[in-house]
């Protein structure tokens, strides 16, 4: 009886407030979520065959934060409909997009070895003023999506020490300068001799996530580091 009422309630909700694809805005059918099947199949996936040596590990190469492995779900390409995934998750109060896509990706990667021996997932934090205004941290939602599937706990071992302006229109050198000193590692006893996966929503030059990785390495040099982002920008 209760399950029947739930189905009736969900069906009524779909009639009154039809669920639409985040990308193309067509009405979703049963079994589809966030994106329609056509858009899901057309998602410009990254698809790295090697998690230890690829485009992203090279972009994040740093003597101040050596990483072991890195990957992303899809390429964030300007002027395509898929930019709405990150935009809606970040600015339109739809953090569920990041969490559900991360769950899907984590299920796909479960048996690839990417999550092997990772002890803790740490999202790139927002400064508390920005998180208060937004109501959530989209990178934490992505981290929670990975955790939902893998069972790896999500930690709060990075804090944002200061707000910084948006990176969107900055050149690479300006992004790097804008990010330096943005984060500080805390509760470092929890990081000692552990393997940490640092998570961001979208990586462009890598300056933001690098600042987080370097803060962890500076505070706990024996912590092993890996990186994940939902989206990866194509550099020209």
Write a brief structural summary:
The protein has 9 helices and 6 strands; from the N terminus they run H-H-H-E-H-H-E-H-H-E-H-E-E-H-E. The protein has 236 residues and is of the alpha/beta class.
Structure, explained:
There is one protein chain. With 236 residues, this protein is of the alpha/beta class. It has 9 helices and 6 strands, in the order H-H-H-E-H-H-E-H-H-E-H-E-E-H-E. The chain has a 4-stranded parallel β-sheet, with helices on both faces. Strands 3-4 form a two-stranded antiparallel ribbon. Strand 5 (195-203), helix 9 and strand 6 form a beta-alpha-beta unit. The longest helix has 15 residues, at 2-16. Mean pLDDT is 87; it is low at 4-17.
State the major sheet: 4 strands, parallel
Principal-axis shape: globular
User: What is the terminal-to-terminal distance?
Assistant: 57 Å
**Strand tally:** 6
How much of the sequence is in beta strands?
15-25%
Rounded mean pLDDT is: 87
Major β-sheet strand ordering: 1-6-5-2
